[in-house]
Amino acid sequence: MASKESTQRRAQRIRRQIKAVANGRLRLSVYRSSKNIHAQIIDDAKGHTIASASSLEKDLKGSLKTGADTAAAAAVGKLVAERAAKAGVKEVVFDRGPYIYHGRVKALADAAREAGLNF
Length: 119
Hints:
By secondary structure, the chain is an alpha+beta fold. The protein has helices at residues 4-21, 58-61, 70-86, 104-114, and strands at 26-32, 37-43, 48-54, 92-95. A hairpin with a 4-residue loop joins strand 1 (26-32) and strand 2 (37-43).
């Protein structure tokens, strides 16, 4: 299992690469825990969160079996894309953090794309 330091180093390396190619686009950041999943759209220039969604929210939590499966990740991806559209955001860069693009992270990204985000 990876140590905390190597996980943080991997996440920082990926964020550095993303910021280099972002061209002013906002960042869709994913946090995945063992029980839930969270997504945020972040403006790094201003240091503000534009939109966010989580499997812990009341309206999602009641409709999901668990917050730790691909169905929950897809619901969070769709919700964050809808909130981004309300805020006027269409183009983002995807920040998977230290997680591989597979399973829940991929399900969230696919659902966000289907709901209208471009990345």
